[in-house]
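Re: that chain you flagged

S.,

Sorry for the slow reply, it's been a week of failed gels. I finally had a moment to sit down with the sequence you sent. For the record, here it is as I used it:
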Amino acid sequence: MRKPIIAGNWKMNNTAEDAVSFVRSIRAGLNNVKNVESVICPPFIAIPAVSEVLTATKIGVGAQNMHHKLSGAYTGEVSVEMIKPYCQYVIIGHSERRAYFGETDDGVNRKAKVALEHGLIPIICVGESLEQNETGLTDSFVSGQVRAAFDGLSADQAAGCIIAYEPIWAIGTGKSASPVEAGRIIGLTVRGAIADMFGESVAQGVRIQYGGSANTENIGEYMSHPDIDGALVGGASLKAGFVEMVRISAEVNG
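Prediction finished late last night. Pasting the structure tokens below so you have them in one place:
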């Protein structure tokens, strides 16, 4: 059984003070939910404070990005060693990083390797554009992203990763892929690529989330699909309803 994981990606929202206040308001609710992992991914500046507030809880903390180098003249960047004292997870290759900041498949691969080498769990994001979706390129494009991200990893390393399938056209738009279609891509395309690279056993053990306008109204349908193991939640994770999303996920998964 793959344990579901619901991660909240706050993006560039909440000051450190606001972050602490909000996390305090939801931590008891999240911590009381059994059989589902919950993760909060605040902006870099709020990570230490959020981590302290979540000490002694089972709620994880993640960073939204990191550099693949350990140190150096990389103005504005943050290394794995800077986030490691506070985080257990790190989001890598989010479509906004790819679109706005030049993130490449090679960069995603480098970051994943460094994260794993330093004991962090990478949440590796893949997903297609609306044009690719409408022209039938989803499967080949997403499969290529998965293969590039996992290139050179061992089977054990691959098994320790989380993948988030986030169709770009569904992120922050209010649109979402249907649970059936999202489940098909996750089960056949994403998990299929992992099976080709590392074998069926590893593929069946890797947790794969759905992301893209997930909310309290639709999370139950997504979590009901046998191949969807959680969600990477954007805007909805900034509201108290995030706790309800985690609760619904737990109910659906028994």
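What I noticed first: The mean pLDDT is 97.

Talk soon,
D.
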